[in-house]
Protein backbone atom coordinates (compact mmCIF):
# COMPACT_ATOMS: atom_id res chain seq x y z
CA UNK A 1 0.00 0.00 0.00
CA UNK A 2 1.33 3.41 -0.95
CA UNK A 3 1.64 6.07 1.73
CA UNK A 4 1.28 8.85 -0.84
CA UNK A 5 -2.46 9.37 -0.16
CA UNK A 6 -1.72 9.72 3.57
CA UNK A 7 1.07 12.20 2.90
CA UNK A 8 -1.24 14.15 0.61
CA UNK A 9 -3.89 14.33 3.32
CA UNK A 10 -1.29 15.58 5.80
CA UNK A 11 0.06 18.14 3.35
CA UNK A 12 -3.44 19.44 2.63
CA UNK A 13 -4.24 19.63 6.36
CA UNK A 14 -7.07 17.08 5.91
CA UNK A 15 -5.96 14.09 7.98
CA UNK A 16 -6.82 15.38 11.46
CA UNK A 17 -10.20 16.62 10.21
CA UNK A 18 -10.99 13.19 8.79
CA UNK A 19 -9.83 11.23 11.83
CA UNK A 20 -11.54 13.63 14.22
CA UNK A 21 -14.80 13.41 12.31
CA UNK A 22 -14.61 9.63 12.17
CA UNK A 23 -14.19 9.49 15.96
CA UNK A 24 -17.58 11.23 16.37
CA UNK A 25 -19.49 8.75 14.22
CA UNK A 26 -19.57 5.71 16.51
CA UNK A 27 -21.13 7.46 19.54
CA UNK A 28 -23.57 9.23 17.20
CA UNK A 29 -24.61 5.92 15.63
CA UNK A 30 -24.83 4.27 19.07
CA UNK A 31 -27.15 7.00 20.38
CA UNK A 32 -29.43 6.72 17.35
CA UNK A 33 -29.46 2.93 17.51
CA UNK A 34 -30.39 2.93 21.19
CA UNK A 35 -33.24 5.38 20.58
CA UNK A 36 -34.49 3.31 17.65
CA UNK A 37 -34.25 0.07 19.64
CA UNK A 38 -36.45 1.59 22.33
CA UNK A 39 -38.99 3.17 20.02
CA UNK A 40 -39.40 0.12 17.75
CA UNK A 41 -39.88 -2.23 20.72
CA UNK A 42 -36.60 -4.16 20.42
CA UNK A 43 -35.78 -3.63 24.10
CA UNK A 44 -39.02 -5.28 25.14
CA UNK A 45 -38.52 -8.14 22.68
CA UNK A 46 -35.02 -8.97 23.89
CA UNK A 47 -35.21 -8.00 27.56
CA UNK A 48 -35.99 -11.47 28.94
CA UNK A 49 -34.32 -13.80 26.44
CA UNK A 50 -32.56 -13.86 23.05
CA UNK A 51 -34.58 -14.11 19.86
CA UNK A 52 -33.53 -15.87 16.66
CA UNK A 53 -33.39 -13.98 13.40
CA UNK A 54 -36.46 -15.86 12.18
CA UNK A 55 -38.42 -14.86 15.30
CA UNK A 56 -37.52 -11.20 14.79
CA UNK A 57 -38.22 -11.38 11.07
CA UNK A 58 -41.67 -12.81 11.71
CA UNK A 59 -42.46 -9.72 13.78
CA UNK A 60 -40.70 -7.07 11.67
CA UNK A 61 -40.68 -8.20 8.04
CA UNK A 62 -43.23 -8.44 5.24
CA UNK A 63 -41.03 -9.89 2.47
CA UNK A 64 -37.55 -11.12 1.53
CA UNK A 65 -36.19 -7.61 0.95
CA UNK A 66 -37.28 -6.60 4.43
CA UNK A 67 -35.50 -9.66 5.87
CA UNK A 68 -32.32 -8.55 4.12
CA UNK A 69 -32.61 -5.06 5.61
CA UNK A 70 -33.35 -6.46 9.07
CA UNK A 71 -30.28 -8.69 8.93
CA UNK A 72 -28.05 -5.74 8.07
CA UNK A 73 -29.69 -3.56 10.76
CA UNK A 74 -29.07 -6.22 13.40
CA UNK A 75 -25.49 -6.65 12.21
CA UNK A 76 -24.95 -2.94 12.70
CA UNK A 77 -26.14 -3.36 16.29
CA UNK A 78 -23.51 -6.02 16.88
CA UNK A 79 -20.79 -3.81 15.35
CA UNK A 80 -21.81 -1.02 17.70
CA UNK A 81 -21.53 -3.33 20.72
CA UNK A 82 -25.23 -3.05 21.55
CA UNK A 83 -26.36 -6.51 20.39
CA UNK A 84 -24.77 -9.92 20.82
CA UNK A 85 -25.32 -12.95 18.62
CA UNK A 86 -24.92 -16.57 19.73
CA UNK A 87 -26.52 -19.94 19.03
CA UNK A 88 -29.72 -18.82 20.77
CA UNK A 89 -30.06 -15.69 18.67
CA UNK A 90 -29.74 -11.94 19.21
CA UNK A 91 -29.53 -10.49 22.71
CA UNK A 92 -29.07 -7.04 24.20
CA UNK A 93 -25.50 -6.29 25.16
CA UNK A 94 -23.53 -3.64 27.03
CA UNK A 95 -25.26 -0.29 27.44
CA UNK A 96 -28.39 -1.51 25.63
CA UNK A 97 -28.84 -4.30 28.20
CA UNK A 98 -28.54 -1.81 31.06
CA UNK A 99 -30.86 0.78 29.53
CA UNK A 100 -33.58 -1.82 28.95
CA UNK A 101 -33.96 -2.28 32.72
CA UNK A 102 -36.98 -0.38 34.14
CA UNK A 103 -34.86 1.38 36.78
CA UNK A 104 -32.79 3.00 34.01
CA UNK A 105 -35.73 4.42 32.06
CA UNK A 106 -34.79 8.02 32.89
CA UNK A 107 -31.36 7.58 31.32
CA UNK A 108 -32.94 6.00 28.26
CA UNK A 109 -35.46 8.84 27.99
CA UNK A 110 -32.58 11.32 28.16
CA UNK A 111 -31.07 9.66 25.08
CA UNK A 112 -34.45 9.86 23.34
CA UNK A 113 -34.57 13.56 24.26
CA UNK A 114 -31.03 14.07 22.92
CA UNK A 115 -31.78 12.24 19.68
CA UNK A 116 -34.94 14.25 19.07
CA UNK A 117 -35.35 17.59 20.84
CA UNK A 118 -31.65 18.30 21.45
CA UNK A 119 -30.72 17.44 17.87
CA UNK A 120 -33.40 19.81 16.58
CA UNK A 121 -32.31 22.56 18.96
CA UNK A 122 -28.70 22.41 17.82
CA UNK A 123 -29.44 21.95 14.12
CA UNK A 124 -32.42 24.29 13.72
CA UNK A 125 -31.95 27.23 16.13
CA UNK A 126 -30.00 29.54 13.78
CA UNK A 127 -32.30 28.70 10.88
CA UNK A 128 -35.31 29.62 12.99
CA UNK A 129 -33.72 32.81 14.29
CA UNK A 130 -32.98 34.00 10.74
CA UNK A 131 -36.66 33.52 9.90
CA UNK A 132 -37.78 35.33 13.06
CA UNK A 133 -39.07 32.11 14.63
CA UNK A 134 -38.64 30.26 17.93
CA UNK A 135 -39.43 26.75 19.12
CA UNK A 136 -42.76 26.00 20.84
CA UNK A 137 -43.65 23.76 23.75
CA UNK A 138 -45.36 21.48 21.24
CA UNK A 139 -41.96 20.80 19.65
CA UNK A 140 -41.03 18.60 22.60
CA UNK A 141 -42.52 15.28 23.67
CA UNK A 142 -43.89 16.03 27.14
CA UNK A 143 -43.98 12.39 28.21
CA UNK A 144 -40.33 11.85 27.27
CA UNK A 145 -39.38 15.02 29.17
CA UNK A 146 -41.32 13.81 32.22
CA UNK A 147 -39.42 10.51 32.05
CA UNK A 148 -35.98 12.03 31.44
CA UNK A 149 -36.39 14.56 34.25
CA UNK A 150 -36.35 11.60 36.65
CA UNK A 151 -32.58 11.47 36.05
CA UNK A 152 -32.46 13.87 39.01
CA UNK A 153 -34.82 11.79 41.14
CA UNK A 154 -32.29 10.51 43.69
CA UNK A 155 -31.15 14.08 44.37
CA UNK A 156 -34.60 15.68 44.42
CA UNK A 157 -36.03 13.11 46.80
CA UNK A 158 -33.15 13.94 49.15
CA UNK A 159 -34.34 17.55 49.12
CA UNK A 160 -37.91 16.42 49.83
CA UNK A 161 -36.70 14.30 52.73
CA UNK A 162 -34.68 17.24 54.04
CA UNK A 163 -37.40 19.90 53.91
CA UNK A 164 -40.79 18.16 54.01
CA UNK A 165 -42.34 17.07 57.32
CA UNK A 166 -42.47 13.28 57.71
CA UNK A 167 -45.53 13.40 59.97
CA UNK A 168 -48.48 15.66 60.68
CA UNK A 169 -50.93 17.44 58.42
CA UNK A 170 -49.34 18.91 55.30
CA UNK A 171 -50.73 20.14 51.98
CA UNK A 172 -48.70 20.34 48.80
CA UNK A 173 -49.13 22.23 45.54
CA UNK A 174 -46.71 20.91 42.93
CA UNK A 175 -46.52 23.24 39.94
CA UNK A 176 -45.56 21.24 36.86
CA UNK A 177 -46.06 17.82 38.42
CA UNK A 178 -44.84 15.82 35.43
CA UNK A 179 -45.33 12.10 36.01
CA UNK A 180 -46.33 12.73 39.63
CA UNK A 181 -43.40 10.72 40.97
CA UNK A 182 -42.33 13.40 43.48
CA UNK A 183 -45.86 13.71 44.82
CA UNK A 184 -45.80 9.93 45.25
CA UNK A 185 -42.54 10.14 47.22
CA UNK A 186 -43.86 12.90 49.48
CA UNK A 187 -47.18 11.11 50.03
CA UNK A 188 -45.51 7.81 50.87
CA UNK A 189 -43.15 9.56 53.28
CA UNK A 190 -45.95 11.40 55.09
CA UNK A 191 -49.25 9.47 55.27
CA UNK A 192 -51.10 12.68 56.27
CA UNK A 193 -49.96 14.72 53.28
CA UNK A 194 -52.48 15.72 50.61
CA UNK A 195 -51.52 17.22 47.27
CA UNK A 196 -52.61 19.02 44.15
CA UNK A 197 -50.48 18.47 41.05
CA UNK A 198 -50.85 21.20 38.41
CA UNK A 199 -49.58 20.32 34.94
CA UNK A 200 -49.51 22.60 31.89
CA UNK A 201 -49.31 19.97 29.13
CA UNK A 202 -52.51 17.90 28.63
CA UNK A 203 -50.83 14.61 27.67
CA UNK A 204 -48.52 14.83 30.68
CA UNK A 205 -51.45 15.61 32.98
CA UNK A 206 -53.26 12.55 31.63
CA UNK A 207 -50.22 10.38 32.33
CA UNK A 208 -50.01 11.78 35.88
CA UNK A 209 -53.72 10.97 36.40
CA UNK A 210 -53.06 7.38 35.41
CA UNK A 211 -50.03 7.11 37.65
CA UNK A 212 -51.81 8.51 40.71
CA UNK A 213 -54.60 5.97 40.20
CA UNK A 214 -52.12 3.11 39.74
CA UNK A 215 -50.31 4.11 42.94
CA UNK A 216 -53.56 4.13 44.94
CA UNK A 217 -53.31 7.83 45.81
CA UNK A 218 -56.55 9.15 44.28
CA UNK A 219 -58.07 9.86 47.69
CA UNK A 220 -55.20 12.14 48.68
CA UNK A 221 -53.93 13.56 45.40
CA UNK A 222 -55.66 15.61 42.70
CA UNK A 223 -54.24 16.36 39.26
CA UNK A 224 -55.32 19.46 37.34
CA UNK A 225 -54.36 20.65 33.89
CA UNK A 226 -53.60 24.36 33.78
CA UNK A 227 -51.23 27.31 33.97
CA UNK A 228 -50.39 28.53 37.47
CA UNK A 229 -50.40 32.11 36.17
CA UNK A 230 -54.11 31.78 35.32
CA UNK A 231 -55.12 30.03 38.54
CA UNK A 232 -56.74 32.12 41.29
CA UNK A 233 -55.21 31.66 44.78
CA UNK A 234 -58.44 30.38 46.31
CA UNK A 235 -56.68 27.56 48.16
CA UNK A 236 -53.53 27.76 50.27
CA UNK A 237 -50.91 25.12 50.91
CA UNK A 238 -48.20 24.50 53.46
CA UNK A 239 -45.71 23.63 50.69
CA UNK A 240 -45.52 24.84 47.09
CA UNK A 241 -42.92 23.37 44.74
CA UNK A 242 -41.37 24.21 41.37
CA UNK A 243 -39.13 21.39 40.16
CA UNK A 244 -37.03 21.94 37.05
CA UNK A 245 -39.46 24.30 35.38
CA UNK A 246 -38.61 27.91 36.27
CA UNK A 247 -37.19 28.12 32.74
CA UNK A 248 -40.68 27.46 31.37
CA UNK A 249 -41.32 31.12 32.26
CA UNK A 250 -39.67 34.21 30.67
CA UNK A 251 -36.90 35.81 32.73
CA UNK A 252 -38.70 39.16 32.81
CA UNK A 253 -41.86 37.54 34.17
CA UNK A 254 -40.33 35.50 36.97
CA UNK A 255 -40.68 38.05 39.77
CA UNK A 256 -44.39 38.53 39.07
CA UNK A 257 -44.76 34.74 38.77
CA UNK A 258 -43.15 34.23 42.18
CA UNK A 259 -45.32 37.00 43.68
CA UNK A 260 -48.39 35.18 42.37
CA UNK A 261 -47.16 31.83 43.72
CA UNK A 262 -46.56 33.39 47.13
CA UNK A 263 -50.32 33.91 47.47
CA UNK A 264 -50.83 30.11 47.48
CA UNK A 265 -48.60 29.59 50.55
CA UNK A 266 -49.89 29.37 54.13
CA UNK A 267 -48.45 31.87 56.65
CA UNK A 268 -46.26 29.12 58.10
CA UNK A 269 -45.48 27.47 54.74
CA UNK A 270 -42.62 27.63 52.26
CA UNK A 271 -41.67 27.41 48.59
CA UNK A 272 -39.21 24.74 47.41
CA UNK A 273 -37.76 25.57 44.00
CA UNK A 274 -35.26 23.22 42.36
CA UNK A 275 -33.46 24.07 39.13
CA UNK A 276 -30.29 23.84 37.09
CA UNK A 277 -28.52 27.19 36.96
CA UNK A 278 -26.15 28.91 34.56
CA UNK A 279 -22.69 27.40 34.10
CA UNK A 280 -23.52 23.69 34.37
CA UNK A 281 -22.52 20.65 32.30
CA UNK A 282 -23.05 20.27 28.55
CA UNK A 283 -26.50 18.76 29.07
CA UNK A 284 -27.43 21.76 31.21
CA UNK A 285 -26.11 24.06 28.48
CA UNK A 286 -28.49 22.44 25.98
CA UNK A 287 -31.32 22.94 28.47
CA UNK A 288 -30.26 26.59 28.69
CA UNK A 289 -30.51 26.80 24.89
CA UNK A 290 -33.98 25.23 24.95
CA UNK A 291 -35.26 27.85 27.39
CA UNK A 292 -33.70 30.73 25.48
CA UNK A 293 -34.95 29.51 22.07
CA UNK A 294 -38.51 28.51 23.05
CA UNK A 295 -41.44 30.90 22.85
CA UNK A 296 -42.77 32.08 26.23
CA UNK A 297 -39.92 30.34 28.08
CA UNK A 298 -36.54 31.66 29.23
CA UNK A 299 -32.90 30.82 29.78
CA UNK A 300 -31.67 29.23 32.99
CA UNK A 301 -31.26 31.56 35.96
CA UNK A 302 -28.00 32.37 37.63
CA UNK A 303 -27.93 31.23 41.25
CA UNK A 304 -27.59 34.72 42.70
CA UNK A 305 -29.98 36.11 40.09
CA UNK A 306 -32.70 33.71 41.26
CA UNK A 307 -32.08 34.56 44.91
CA UNK A 308 -32.55 38.22 43.98
CA UNK A 309 -35.77 37.47 42.09
CA UNK A 310 -37.15 35.53 45.08
CA UNK A 311 -36.32 38.45 47.37
CA UNK A 312 -37.90 40.95 44.97
CA UNK A 313 -41.04 38.79 45.01
CA UNK A 314 -41.26 38.98 48.80
CA UNK A 315 -39.33 35.87 49.84
CA UNK A 316 -36.90 37.41 52.29
CA UNK A 317 -35.44 34.20 53.72
CA UNK A 318 -33.83 32.02 51.02
CA UNK A 319 -31.78 28.92 51.80
CA UNK A 320 -29.81 27.26 48.98
CA UNK A 321 -28.31 23.78 48.77
CA UNK A 322 -26.26 22.32 45.92
CA UNK A 323 -27.86 18.94 45.20
CA UNK A 324 -25.22 17.42 42.88
CA UNK A 325 -21.52 17.86 43.71
CA UNK A 326 -19.76 19.83 40.98
CA UNK A 327 -23.01 20.64 39.14
CA UNK A 328 -25.00 23.87 39.08
CA UNK A 329 -28.12 22.15 40.40
CA UNK A 330 -29.66 23.79 43.45
CA UNK A 331 -32.61 23.64 45.80
CA UNK A 332 -33.95 27.00 47.00
CA UNK A 333 -36.15 26.95 50.11
CA UNK A 334 -37.85 30.31 50.44
CA UNK A 335 -40.08 31.67 53.21
CA UNK A 336 -42.53 34.46 52.44
CA UNK A 337 -41.67 37.85 53.88
CA UNK A 338 -44.17 37.54 56.72
CA UNK A 339 -42.30 34.44 57.92
CA UNK A 340 -38.79 35.88 57.70
Folded structure, characterized:
This protein is α/β, with parallel strands linked by helices and 340 residues long. The chain folds into two domains: 97 residues, Arc Repressor Mutant, subunit A (Orthogonal Bundle), CATH 1.10.10; 198 residues, Vaccinia Virus protein VP39 (Rossmann fold, 3-Layer(aba) Sandwich). Helices cover 49% and strands 18% of the residues. It has 14 helices and nine strands. The strands form two sheets. Strands 5-4-3-6-7-9-8 form a seven-stranded mixed β-sheet, sandwiched between helices. The protein has a two-stranded antiparallel sheet with strand order 1-2. Helix 11 links the parallel strand 4 and strand 5. Helix 7 crosses helix 13. The radius of gyration is 24 Å and the shape is globular.
Topology at a glance:
Blueprint: H1 4-11, H2 15-39, H3 42-46, H4 53-60, H5 64-79, E1 83-86, E2 89-92, H6 94-99, H7 105-130, H8 142-148, H9 153-163, E3 170-175, H10 181-189, E4 193-199, H11 202-214, E5 221-225, E6 237-243, H12 254-262, E7 265-276, H13 282-293, H14 303-312, E8 315-322, E9 329-336
Helix pairs in contact: 2-7, 7-8, 7-13, 9-10
Kindly report the spatial arrangement of strands forming the biggest sheet.
Answer: 5-4-3-6-7-9-8
Average pLDDT score: 94
CATH architecture verdict of the largest domain: 3-Layer(aba) Sandwich
Alpha plus pi helix count:
14
Number of domains: 2
CATH third-tier fold name of the largest domain: Rossmann fold
Q: Major beta sheet, specifics?
A: 7 strands, mixed
Terminal CA distance: 78 Å
Taking all Cα atoms into account, the compactness measure Rg is: 24 Å
Summarize the amount of helix as a percent range: 40-55%
The CATH superfamily of the largest domain turns out to be Vaccinia Virus protein VP39
> What global shape is seen?
globular
**Quick one: CATH class of the largest domain?**
Alpha Beta
Give the helices and strands as they follow along the chain: HHHHHEEHHHHEHEHEEHEHHEE
Estimate the strand proportion.
15-25%
Secondary-structure content class: alpha/beta
Residue runs with pLDDT of under 50 for 5 or more positions: none
Give the strand tally. Answer: 9
